[in-house]
Write a structure and sequence with these properties.
Layout lengths: L2 H13 L8 H21 L3 H16 L3 H7 L2 H15 L16 E2 L3 E3 L1 E3 L9 E10 L9 E6 L19 E5 L5 E7 L11 H8 L9 E7 L6 E6 L22 E4 L2 H7 L5 E5 L2 E3 L16 E2 L1
Parallel strand pairs: 1-13, 2-6, 3-7, 4-11, 4-12
Antiparallel strand pairs: 4-7, 5-6, 5-8, 8-9, 10-11
Helix pairs in contact: 1-2, 4-6
Bound molecules: 3-methylcatechol (MBD) and fe (iii) ion.
Length: 304
Amino acid sequence: MDTKTIDQLLDRFEKTGVVGEGNSRVKLVVNRLVRDLMLAIEDLDITPEEFWSGLNYFAEAGRNGELGLIAPGIGLEHFLDLRMDEAEARAGLKGGTPRTIEGPLYVAGAPVAQGEARLDDGQTAGEVVVMQGVVRGTDGQPVAGATVEVWHANDKGNYSYFDTTQSAFNLRRTIVADAQGRYKFRSVMPVGYSCPPGGATDRLLQQLGRHGHRPAHIHFFVSAPGHRKLTTQINIENDPHLWDDFAFGTREGLVPKVYTNNDRAAMNALNVDKPFYEIQFDFTLHADQVRAPATDFARTRAAA
Ligand code: MBD
Ligand code: FE
C-alpha cells in the first residue's frame, strides 16, 4: 500500500465512530504512532504471523512486569535522558552531575536516615563499601538537608522487593544530608544486574544478538527544594561491563575511583576484619528552571 493510500485510510479511521472531542494530545500521539507502525508493516512487509507474535510478546512482557526493562534495553530510556540534556542545554543550564536512567527497580517508601545510614541488613553477603560526599548547587554551595535516595543490587545482582528472599528495603534508604550538605552510607558492594534468563527482555536481546548484563552500579535520586531533581547512578570501575551496559546507563563523570582501605583502626571502627572499599562522590544539582521540562515527572513506581 502506498503512503497516500495509508493516509486516506487513516483519515477515514479518525472520522469513524467519533462521539466527542477526546484528548487532543492523545489523538496526536496515537494517530502518529499508528501511522508509523503501518508504514513499518508496509516497508518491512511484516507478516500476520510476525504481527501477532509481536503483539503477544508485549502482552507477555506486560504480564511479567518486563516492559520497564525492555524500555532501557532498546535504548529508549537513555534516549529520553539525552533529550532532557538537550532541553537543559537550550534553557542555558550548564554543569551539574550527569543524569542517567532510573531503571525499573526503584521502590518508594524506604526508611529515612539523617546524614548517615547503613543500607544492608547485616545478613547480606558481600564486601563492605562506604560511600560519602556533598550535595551542592551549581554555585558550589552545599545544599543543607538535601534528600539522597539510594538503591542498589546485592552481590548476586538482585534488588530487594523484586527479589523476595531479601529483607524489606534491604540496600535502599532515603538519606537526608546534614547542614553542610553531607551524606554518607555503609553498604555491601553490588554486582551487576542481569535480565531474568528466558524472560521477555532476555529473549528479545538474544534475537538482537545482544546480552542483558549491566555493570555494577548504585542508583540515586537527589532532590532539594529550589533544585531540579537529579536521577543518576554511579558505576563501579573495572567492571567488565562498565562500557558495555545493555541499558546504556554508563556515562562520563559517573565512574568514581574506588579505594581500598586497609587501615586497621578504620576496619575496627566498622567492625570488619577485611579491607573495605571507599567511594567519594559529590552531587551537583541545578537550581529550579521553568524553561526546562520537569525532571520530577510522574511515573508509576513500586511502593512498599
Ligand atoms: C537495573 O538494575 C537497572 O538499573 C536498569 C536500568 C535496568 C535493569 C536493571
Ligand atoms: Fe539498577
